[in-house]
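hey can u check if this looks right to u? its 252 residues, i copy pasted from the old doc so theres a chance i mangled smth
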Amino acid sequence: MHSLQKDIRKDIIKHPYRNMDIIYEAGKTMLSAQDEELIKEYTRLHDFEQKMKSTAEQLHRQSESLNETILQLDEKLLSVRASFDTCVSLADKLSQANYSLMETSVAKVAKAQEQTQEKLKDYHKDLLAIYEIARVMQEDINQYHEFNENGTETIYEEVSTLVMNHSANWENNAINTSDFDRHFNQFRKFATMMENRREFLVAESESVMDNYNNLNNETTALYNLWNELIKRTDLLARMSDLHNKTTGFTEN
């Protein structure tokens, strides 16, 4: 019995995702073609899971960096909005029949608009700077889901079929079928645990993309309001100019 144990060969194939234990039948050391195919496909399965794990971790790292920038842009947008609100307030007062020059005037509105315009330019420049990062990240997230939904099912079906065929032909193969099944089940439990973790990381990345999209929506809404304000203040300026020409009044 002791000599029989010495004839049992065990290989440990080191892999970044998880080491693969390959145990052979007693007295068998030469791999069959089916053994070689099993190891090849099993390694490919490990490669796939490692790639999915690395992709999820990379997405999460990118999203953390992107979110920091989004938070900074949120603060900038608040500042732009405050400046915009000042313009609106001045324009509202200018629209009144008997407005006070101490509170508002065409010149004061124009100056407030100029200040807001500068803030908008600076903000828009920073927003454009992260557009490409966000676009690529969204594409990577979509690709991750596509691989996860389609690639996972395909490769697991292929390996499972190969395992069954290998088991049915166990007499002609060197790899121990029962030990491989046990190790394969352990691998699947580990892969499920890792999948839960990477799904959490990707969900966190998607929440950052939601923040980015919300920022874009808020920005678009403010740009639309800004364009309407420009039209309104232009009209007010023309009306004021006509009024001053009629009355001979000047603000100076």
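The longest strand covers residues 10-13.
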